[in-house]
Amino acid sequence: MAKITEAMLYPAPNSEGLCLLAGPDGIQFSGFRKPENRKWEGKRLSEAAAGLKKTWVDAWAALVVSEPTVNMVVHMMTESNLPLQLRRPWVKINTDANGVDPDSMQGTRLHPRSYGNYSRLLGRYVGEQRVLSWGEAIRKSSSAVANRLSIRTTTAASRAGVMSSSIRWNRRARP
Length: 175
Hints:
The chain is mainly α. It is 37% helix and 5% strand. It is globular, with a radius of gyration of 19 Å.
């Protein structure tokens, strides 16, 4: 536990230190499977710390040691900042969420990026707010990411004679 505590309070220079940046109110638990931990599902780290009568670092360490596969949702961005960031030419769009079988996760809260990343991008920021064009949103989500990662593939861009990935979108459906 001492090693976890030290890493949380003094993150390595190459670490984002998300818990320090977001603070205990900005960290939300997701994906508990053990019955004894389910009461913390969807709760903030500050709530778990108060309930466990521990510091936020000790509460985090205890829960992660108890259930190493637990996820966290970090609340740091503001809705008003997203359009500005999305318009920046160097910003790429992806998801780091795990692919999960919804039937195996009954009653478990998943990270919003597990299902909502692209529907939110296309529905809200392309369809409703017109922050990006459809083409730019697709480029930022596919070939721009592949190029940044130096992935050379025929499926990264859609042009005549080249196989590509596609998105089917129903504008009337609500995410």
